[in-house]
Specification:
The protein is α/β, with parallel strands linked by helices. The protein has 32 helices and 28 strands.
Length: about 850
């Protein structure tokens, strides 16, 4: 702290005491203007670490005010509002201290810029830029797409990238870092500070953040230091299952027993955060908690509730006016909701990193332990919870895979860059490659995107293919056409459109939240449903909105939202497989039960349930448990109802990102061999086939030889709905699908038809860049082909044992397959 102004030193010592280890490591390097990737446990003061030296520079006069000098970017608008509040408060305190000593204190203005910022505030920001600007990846790209927005970004000294793990493995991360690279052309080189509690591997993330500097025609990797906190985060984890739930009758649902157990814990705590894995369960559990308590003890918090409602819920918990929040991943990152006594996880999250983020919300203070109780709700969830708790204690994070050269994002970047400036095409190509994600971009692919944007594929029947840019081949120049930037502003960035209806109050038209299009299709005027602890009645349905008024209190089902399933990573899945392999010979060993209690943090009842579940599986199949080195093919002789079909459950345990491409290749191989299309269902634990005729495990595996894997996948993908959905998303990101007007929803079904028409028109072009990007998205980003190849190789080398059983009824493991789809709605 010796380098800081004496008043700042005094303020920090009184408020925080001593710096944390990460602060002590980081500040000397930040003072030397080093680029940094900082990783430290939640509650280690990472954000203050990034900001305090810059505040010191403003205060000491080392950094001139009156211009935007610091750019803070996070994935969440709500987190940005918190950061603004958390900066203004210490600034006001420091200003008062300086005034007490008659020491001059400079004007340091902090402002946020997002989609929620009103036009008046945006205009004021252009006239008087804030010294510290807080924004999102999407808003940064919009700023860079206008002359006015760019005008406040010419003097950037420091860019802070918070919660970098939230975007680094997605196209949104590419969108963000491409924009950051574009800033260097205006501001010159600036300091980059990336923050996260959960990133792995660090060197890959650091490289992603650092990017490349261009000296002449030579790309040089920027230097970046990686700082890892030596502080050990303490976790107090317990995996719990209510006794009443364990002894419930066959027709009884678990939720009432779960609520009976949850309520006393919530009452014992001052504040509790309950995480669930879906919006429907969020609404359902909130309703049941409040009904059982006969008063409001909890509010729901999820992405389909309006920002105003979520902000009010956060404030009520922070002010002690609310005992609990039931949330989805919307509160996974560091939004300020005050001190939490405990985090409760109802069902296992889909990843280890996500679990660590959630648990870290409790005990957020420096040095405090994070207390968490995990409530599994079905047999397989018991196993996952036990594995998850151990993985959290070991901090075994999934490795991040970054996305390279996404052509749909590239199209949007080109429109943005040419919308405010006339470019030499060669210089444009070189500039784009400064971003790590595009550094390996081939000129051929770049030219294909340019050709698409110039209208090379234009068809008078497909207006989506009309030119977006104009190229002067004689002078090698490119600029955007009139209207191209408007398409960019309407696009909303690179997040796929989910086709939601706005939910509005009949009285003042205030926005309450969002409803899934398919739910609205099935809804009728007069229907009631529960949302955000209230009951609503549908009054009117328009092309864009659902108008509601207060409904009669009572038992009303929450809406449903069609969401992406939890695609468990191979890393987490492999840990489950290794656990089952180690457990298989030890189920009768008392030491194994004790290990579940001590190492896996399971309460006694949970340990007994896990052992009982695994024993039932082994007894039913009369084989070892399916595990990392054992795949079980289970042929169930009796089909559903009186169907004569047989089911084949392939217990791989590889996770959906590996199981899905395996299943699709299997479908293609089956069609080649038998001339028919089998019915296939994919889960994290297994692949389920409806067999029209008898077939052995060996025959099934022979349908997907390792050397033909990608060919089979391409054969099956081309006409699949999965491919069509990804094409629609890529076309939308490429500005090929019109969005309508501002604040007007375009129905998802209309976007689907528009996308299908576009795809039919361009299938004849083998080099159409968005078709190429869709293939890449499926084969590289959505599917984990590397680990699938490894597993198929191990099967061929007999490193993975394969066994086969016939059974009249599903084994316990087979029964758990359906939970992937239905457990959140039970």
């Amino acid at each position: 702290m010796e380098q800081f102004h004496p008043i700042i030193q005094q303020w920090f010592a009184e408020r925080y005491g001593s710096p944390t280890d990460i602060q002590a490591m980081a500040w000397p390097l930040i003072a030397k203007h080093k680029n940094l990737l900082i990783t430290a446990p939640t509650g280690s003061g990472k954000t203050l670490t990034a900001f305090l030296w810059t505040l010191n520079r403003f205060i000491t006069g080392d950094l001139e005010g009156g211009k935007t000098r610091v750019l803070y970017i996070s994935p969440l608008k709500a987190l940005n509002n918190d950061i603004q509040r958390n900066l203004i408060e210490p600034l006001n305190t420091l200003r008062a201290r300086f005034e007490e000593t008659s020491t001059e204190f400079p004007a340091i203005n902090v402002a946020t810029r997002s989609g929620d910022t009103d036009q008046g505030e945006r205009r004021r920001m252009l006239r008087k830029p804030p010294e510290i600007l807080i924004t999102t990846p999407e808003s940064l790209n919009i700023l860079l797409s206008s002359h006015g927005g760019k005008s406040i970004l010419y003097d950037i000294e420091t860019v802070i990238l918070d919660e970098i793990h939230g975007v680094v493995d997605s196209k949104r991360g590419v969108y963000l870092m491409s924009a950051v690279e574009r800033l260097t052309r205006q501001s010159g080189e600036f300091q980059r500070i990336a923050l996260s509690a959960t990133v792995n591997p660090l060197d890959k993330v650091a490289e992603f953040v650092a990017g490349y500097s261009l000296n002449g025609k030579v790309y040089e990797k920027r230097k970046i230091d990686i700082l890892v906190s030596g502080a050990t985060k303490e976790y107090d984890i317990s995996v719990r299952y209510p006794e009443a739930a364990a002894n419930r009758g066959e027709d009884e649902k678990i939720w009432d027993h779960l609520v009976t157990d949850l309520l006393p814990r919530i009452h014992q705590n001052q504040s509790t955060l309950v995480f669930v894995n879906s919006r429907a369960l969020c609404e359902k559990l909130t309703f049941k908690l409040n009904t059982a308590a006969q008063r409001i003890v909890a509010y729901a918090h999820h992405g389909s509730l309006s920002r105003e409602i979520r902000t009010e819920v956060e404030s009520r918990l922070k002010e002690g006016k609310l005992e609990a929040i039931v949330a989805t991943s919307t509160l996974e990152m560091g939004i300020d909701i005050g001190a939490l006594d405990e985090v409760i996880l109802v069902q296992s999250p889909g990843s280890i990193a996500s679990t660590i983020q959630r648990i870290g919300r409790a005990g957020h203070q420096v040095g405090a332990a994070s207390r968490c109780t995990i409530y599994p709700t079905h047999p397989q969830d018991f196993v996952e919870s036990a594995v998850l708790s151990a993985a959290v204690m070991e901090k075994s994070l999934e490795p991040i895979t970054t996305i390279n050269n996404p052509l749909d994002v590239l199209a949007q970047i080109i429109v943005s860059m040419t919308g405010t400036e006339n470019w030499d095409i060669d210089n444009l190509f070189q500039e784009i490659r400064c971003a790590t994600a595009f550094n390996s971009l081939r000129r051929h692919e770049f030219d294909l995107v340019i050709n698409m944007l110039t209208g090379r594929y234009a068809d008078r029947h497909i207006r989506e293919l009309k030119p977006r840019v104009r190229v002067d081949r004689t002078n090698n120049r490119i600029e955007a056409r009139k209207g191209a930037l408007m398409s960019l502003y309407l696009s909303g960035g690179v997040i796929p459109d989910r086709g939601y209806f706005q939910l509005r109050h009949e009285g003042d038209n205030a926005r309450i939240g969002e409803l899934d299009e398919e739910f609205v299709w099935e809804a009728n005027v007069g229907q009631t449903f529960s949302l955000g602890t209230q009951t609503w009645q549908v009054k009117k349905i328009t092309h864009n909105d659902v108008i509601v008024g207060p409904g009669k209190p009572g038992i009303s089902a929450p809406p449903f939202w069609k969401a992406e399933p939890l695609n468990r990573s191979f890393h987490y899945s492999e840990k489950i497989g290794e656990f089952l392999e180690a457990a298989d010979p030890r189920l009768d060993d008392a030491a194994f039960r004790e290990e579940l209690i001590t190492h896996n943090k399971c309460e006694s009842k949970v340990a007994d349930e896990i052992i009982s579940y695994l024993k039932r599986q082994r007894a039913h199949s009369n084989t070892p448990l399916p595990h990392r080195h054992h795949i079980l093919f289970e042929r169930i002789k009796s089909g559903p109802g009186r169907a004569s079909m047989q089911q084949m459950v392939i217990h791989t345990g590889w996770g959906a990102r590996v199981n899905r491409p395996f299943a699709m290749a299997l479908e293609a191989g089956w069609h080649r061999s038998f001339g028919e299309q089998p019915e296939v269902f994919v889960a994290n634990e297994s692949v389920v086939l409806q067999l029209p005729h008898e077939v052995s495990a060996t025959e099934i595996l022979d349908l997907v030889p390792l050397e033909r894997l990608e060919a089979l996948l391409r054969e099956r993908l081309e006409g699949s709905g999965f491919f069509g959905a990804r094409f629609r998303e890529s076309a939308g990101r490429s500005l090929l699908l019109s969005k309508g007007r501002f604040n007007q929803r375009k129905p998802l079904w209309m976007s689907r038809l528009q996308s299908q028409k576009l795809m039919d028109a361009v299938l004849k072009y083998e080099d159409f860049p968005i078709l190429l990007e869709t293939w890449r998205t499926c084969l590289q980003d959505e599917f984990d082909l590397d680990n699938l190849r490894a597993m198929l190789g191990e099967i061929e080398q007999r490193d993975i044992h394969v066994s086969e059983i016939d059974t009249a009824s599903p084994s316990p493991f087979a029964q758990s397959v359906a939970w992937d789809q239905i457990n959140t709605y039970m």
